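Thread: Newbie trying to understand structure tokens

Hi all, I'm a second-year student working on a class project, and my supervisor (Dr. K.) asked me to get a predicted structure for one chain before our next meeting. I've only ever worked with sequences, so writing a 3D structure as a token string is new to me. If someone could post the tokens and maybe explain what I'm looking at, I'd be very grateful. Here's the chain:
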Amino acid sequence: MTAAVAPRRQPQKHVEAPTPRPPRLRVVEPSPERRRRRLRRLYFSFFGFILAVFFLVAFAHASLVETQRELDQIHSEIDRLEDEAAKLERQIDVESAPAAIVGQAEELGYVHPTSVIHLQSVGT
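---
Reply by user tm_fold:
Sure, no problem. This is what the structure looks like when written as tokens:
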């Protein structure tokens, strides 16, 4: 038997597989429906913000009005008390006048003395 020699293989060149290229990127314009939704959302957000600001202003105004009402009540109470104090001071002035004191004493039965006696102190 004769030995048959197998044909020699040629070394294969290592061929790299082609690397996939990244997809080409491009700017995609939003669809009109998406744009309308975004604008609608923006309008509702703006409207909600304005509404919240109005409520905040209304709350602040109501708070200021309530505080002013309380302040007015305090001022009217102060005026009333000042008027009452002035009335009491006039009453004290009238009732502490010498003529008024003498009149009250006579009503209680006190009489004018017929003579005045001076007492001398016994001193050391």
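A couple of things are worth pointing out once you decode it. The radius of gyration is 55 Å. The chain has a mean pLDDT of 88. Feel free to ask follow-ups in this thread.
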